[in-house]
Amino acid sequence: MKILLVQPPRYSPDGHANFDAVEALVTPGSADLMILPELAGATLPRADYLTRVRELAKGSGMAVVGGSHYDDSGPGGRVNRGAVAGPDGTLLAEYDKAHPYGLELRSGVVPGRPGGGFELHGRRLHVLLCADLWYSASLAGADGPDAVLVPAFSVTRWDGPAPARQLWQHMSVARAYEFMTYVAVSDWHHETTYHGHPCAGVTGLANPCPHTHTGFFTGPPDAAVSLHELDFGRLDAFRRDRSERGFR
To answer: Which of 87, 155, 179, 185 counts the highest number of beta carbons within 10 A?
Structure first.
């Protein structure tokens, strides 16, 4: 399975502008699945956000993990919420951010439902929004996902992106190895800001079974889009080997 991680060079509070920028960056048919960063839809109304995710999927010929947007339509308050659409525009899954923090909490964002899962080409894929990856309980109840897909907006309080990147890379590799799954993170470019807070640009792929020790994490990319191939045959063999050695 080929996945495309999208790392736009800048964030706009206009969700339509973000989707327009993604459409200009992506070559149709270049992957099976693309992942957008968190808040690609900004504050678009729910109907508009879902329309843009579905249109992007149909126009690109790929399944799309549509990042997220702030949804104010529910009775419980504002939720950071996203959706997945298949290549034909069919809605495959919806997911919320269960652990809003910092600026989100101060602005009234409330916890949503845990991230959702879906199937693509016979493989189980699970979506976690940004900080939800930092809680192992987010995956403890999942049904052995073959890949964890993480739309992120990695705002940081460090002076530069390096410390946060290292933390994200270590966390992604730890989750990948613990749960025997790929972890793919799509973030904004590190020169992006959100309400004055800088982004770390943590886009990349964690691989629990690389061919060499340098392959546990690949990224962040220099380009706005990066293509990765998930070798599920190798992942299955890795799982069998760990089971035979008593890791469960």
So the answer is: 185
